[in-house]
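Sample entry (321 residues):
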Amino acid sequence: MSQELAIVYARLHALGNSALHLLPNIGIAIAVFLLFLFAASLTRRLVHHVNAGKYHKNLVIVLGRMSQWGLILVGLLLSVTIAFPSFTIGNLISALGITGIAIGFAFKDIFENFLAGILILITEPFEIGDQIVFGSFEGTIDEIQARATKIRTYDGRLAIVPNADLYKGSFIVNTAFPTRRLQYDVVIGNGDDIQAAKRVMLDAIRKLPGVEAEPAPDVLLLDYADNGVKLRIRWWIKPPRKADALALKDQVLEAVKAALTANGIDLPYPTQQILFHDQTETTDGNRRLQREGWPAGKGEVPAPAREAARAEQADAPSGEA
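Predicted structure, serialized as tokens:
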């Protein structure tokens, strides 16, 4: 038993001596790592200061964090090699290579969304505050993160869209340009004067303060509909926000309706007429009073159904009856 204790004591003594030999290296490694921490924090602030006015705010934040964590990783690797000289950077890289492949497959979607977020922040197809339409989502860009983009819908809900889907997909930016065109179709009667209707609608639209003078509003003849003539009103607004667009559209339609009605221009709507005709009574069939269901002819009156049946029975031989 004493021999076993001696072996354990010898091993602990050897470990203690090794630890004492490593203490200077460990102290140097800690100092180097703290130095890299300070340099990483300083680099992040420098990146923010240099790129603050050049790029998007979220992109500057992401670039600062990437530079900071990159320096921290380099400092950690260097500190490990200083503290444990037998453990070289080559051994660490080879170990991280196999682990990196596994992590890459496990977090493929996260890396894809992160890279797409960086590309979105660099290319800037939209900015925070822009209003976009993406698939079934429509609203205002609330935040652009490294992994996903947050959209505040018009009904007060939050939609989180992965950056990879947003970057690879198609979307519409409603606020990309300073002005936006709106339109609406109006149907007037077939007997109304088209040019007069155009003038009336344009005069009503031009009086509204929210309608832009340039580009000028216009009215186009679009189609001959079943219930009248279809005209399309087009006008431009600024700024092109959803709430502003809805409010101004309400004013335009109200003004157009009032102007057309005041000038006696008809606003028809589809109608359908159903005629019921019964030819079973002896009084039916007088085309001077009722002509639906058969051509005018030369004055002959079709025999009612009951009289025709009686005539067939009277003409039939008595044996057949």
